[in-house]
């Protein structure tokens, strides 16, 4: 994994060489990030709000409390069958 310093250097290089479209995308993403309403992004690029994140965490916690979860051992067994 890259260190924070390495990530900054690489991003600076991208920005220095970027076209206008890339710069606009990074700018928009940065504004959303600073606004604190976006906790992250799904793999398809759609944003995850902090409210959605809280709801997902609560739902996961409720599933664990009610016994609806898969143990690490079961996951490891399942992976072996892939």
Specify the structural class.
mainly alpha
The average pLDDT is: 87
Query: Main sheet?
Result: 2 strands, antiparallel
Major sheet: arrangement of strands:
1-2
Q: Helix tally?
A: 4
Distance from N terminus to C terminus (CA atoms, Å) equals 26 Å
The total count of strands amounts to 2
Percent helix range: 55-70%
Strand content bin? 5-15%
- As a whole number of angstroms, the C-alpha radius of gyration is 19 Å
Q: Spans with pLDDT under 50 lasting ≥5 residues?
A: none
Describe what you observe in this structure.
The protein is mainly α and 82 residues long. It contains 4 helices and 2 strands. It has a two-stranded antiparallel ribbon. The longest helix is centred in the C-terminal third of the chain and has 16 residues. The radius of gyration is 19 Å and the shape is extended. The two termini are 26 Å apart.
Task: Output the keywords.
mainly alpha; two-stranded antiparallel ribbon; 82 residues; single chain; 4 helices
What order do the helices and strands come in, and which of them pair?
Elements: H1 4-17, H2 20-34, E1 38-41, E2 47-49, H3 50-65, H4 72-80
Antiparallel strand pairs: 1-2
């Amino acid at each position: 994994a890259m260190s924070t310093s390495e990530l900054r250097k690489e991003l600076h290089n991208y920005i220095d060489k970027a076209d206008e479209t890339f710069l606009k995308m990074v700018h928009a993403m940065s504004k959303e990030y600073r606004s604190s309403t976006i906790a992250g992004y799904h793999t398809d690029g759609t944003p995850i709000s902090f409210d959605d994140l809280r709801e997902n965490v609560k739902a996961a916690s409720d599933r664990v409390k009610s016994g609806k979860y898969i143990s690490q051992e079961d996951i490891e067994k399942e992976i072996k069958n892939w």
